Amino acid sequence: MPSTPKPPRRRAPRQERAQATRAAIVLAAATVFAERGYARTTLDGVAVEAGVTKGALYFHFASKHDLANAVIAEETRVMTEGADRILRLEVSSLETLILLIRAFTERIVADVVVAAGVKLTTEELVARLDIDEPYETWGALYADLFGKAIAEGDVVAAYSPDALSRFLISLFTGVQLVSNSLTQRADAADRVAEMWQIFLPGIVRPERLAAVVALRALQR
Description:
The protein is built from 10 helices and no strands. By secondary structure, it is mostly helical. The chain has a domain at 72-218: Tetracycline Repressor, domain 2 (Orthogonal Bundle). The model has no long low-confidence stretch (mean pLDDT 91).
């Protein structure tokens, strides 16, 4: 009795394969950008890291500039998804802010796409990358939360929410950059904890400070 022929193996649709290849290239680019920075990264190096031909890479990205912007966009997407989960928690606006910064710190250490995105948006300004969106996104979110924290009575009204947002972004950016330079971010969590210890007494209402310092989000 003749054997039943096996059905032909289903091949992934072309669009599906293209998306997988693009994702692999972005991840490989993030790995190389995080290690070498924008200036010392080459498309040849990214193609080798991704295990694709240079032609396949150029099919998806016309230049290193486009590829770097894709990494920044992916980092913003990943962090926005994480932020959405935190924003759904039933905690105060100030604790939400602290949790967002904590999550950002953890992802910079653990996720190469986030580490590369942060590196590109803070160290590679001369490349004229598309860095406006991430700064505007986080700036608006932090300002909104600071405004709510003022209304909730945790934060003093001496400073505008926009000013507090800009200052927090500057603080956090500086802290993580120095941590990366000195310890490859091994001490990032400790340095961010110090940042809050110094920053919070200057913005929290005195009668609320003890309760804020005791927040679970600040405990390690």
